[in-house]
Write the structure tokens for this entry.
Amino acid sequence: MIQLLITILFVLIPITWIVFKHKKTIKQALVELIPKHQGLKKEVTGSITLFAALFFGFILISAGLSITEGITGTNINDLEKVEEVVNNEIAFNFTAFIISLVIIVFIEEFFFRSFLVPRIGMILSTLTFTFFHYGYGSIAELIGVFILGLILAYWFKKRGSIIQNYFGHLFYNIIAVIFYILL
């Protein structure tokens, strides 16, 4: 129930902010928050390139966690906590899990990148994004979310495309879920 409330707020807060602070209509607020697409070829190429950057970032993060563990002897790679949550959600209702994944990724891009990045910057929006992923209880997840969140924030700032961010982020999450299911 709390997740549903947060999801609704992540849609209403940006629209309400722009309508009241900037005295715009709801339609004008949505145009500002969901910029016009940049053409199919550019959006597809950008989405695939962003996904590749996120996946490469994941590989670097994994390597960094392994090296840190080897040097310090401290295991901070606690992604089994995330795996447990994902597997429980999939076991409970696979269809609802996939639908929520598709919707939540869009709302995350809408709120954290399209709304927050232009207003509070890449670092603060990414810290906020990371904070909202604390529910998994995984240190490795938070490190990964912060670094991948920075990539997503940078991409949005440079490209201004919620479509590229959405599909890059969605493909990344789908691959991560497949890894959790298969491994």
